[in-house]
Amino acid sequence: MKRVFGVKKDKEPPPSIQDASDRINKRGDNVEEKLKKLDAELSRYKEQIKKTRPGPAQEAIKARAMRVLKQKRMYEGQRDMLYSQTFNLDQVAFASEGLKDAQQTMSALKSANKELKGMMKTVNIQDIDNLQDEMMDMMDVSNEIQETLGRSYNVPDYIDEEELMGELDALEADMGSEADGIPSYLQPDKEEPDVDTEFLPAAPTGNTTAAQGEDEHGLPTVPRASLRS
């Protein structure tokens, strides 16, 4: 059967944009090489024309240079055509790559959306609220435990205002005495000022007290003469 009808050949896949672009670029490189050779040949003819006197020899060189210049113009046209084809292929390639990126982005978004929906089903707002309430209750219990453990012993529960003011006055006095850097309990006792006994009144006797009388507090009055002396 194979000999009669033959074997069906598999169709070759169509060339991709990259394959076509690579092929055209390769042709463009070949044309560029030919143009470089023609430019070098034209430069050589130009030097020969400068060195040759006008006449048949110079005309022959000009004719060869004209032929090379026509070839250069033809290759330049081919090069421009190939560049235009490459430009069109690049535009199509950019558009194709953009569509592929868009497809991948859409696929990634759909997959992420599906995962998010599945995750949202496992999350319950009420469970989160209950968990927050439990955490707040646990924090309150923890604070109560800390306060209970930090309770002091043998500390009076009530202190009146007079006792408080007395403590503050004593503290202020201690701070004033310690201003010089020496604690109050290390400071020497203040000496009583020397008082001359001749300026003091004489001790009253019983008769004197009766004669002088008493003041409003029941104490004997001191004579004015004694104070002036």
UniProtKB/TrEMBL annotation:
Domain of life assignment: Eukaryota
Family annotation (Gene3D superfamilies): 6.10.250.1710
Ranges of Basic and acidic residues composition bias in the record: 20-30
InterPro entries the record matches: Snf7_fam (IPR005024)
Signal peptide: none
One term under GO cellular component: multivesicular body
Swiss-Prot/TrEMBL keywords: Coiled coil
TM regions (residue ranges): none
Recorded coiled-coil stretches: 99-148
Example GO BP: late endosome to vacuole transport via multivesicular body sorting pathway
Chain intervals for the UniProt region annotation (Disordered): 1-30, 174-229
Entry annotated with the keyword Glycoprotein: no
Family to which the UniProt record says this protein belongs: Belongs to the SNF7 family.
Record's protein name: Charged multivesicular body protein 5
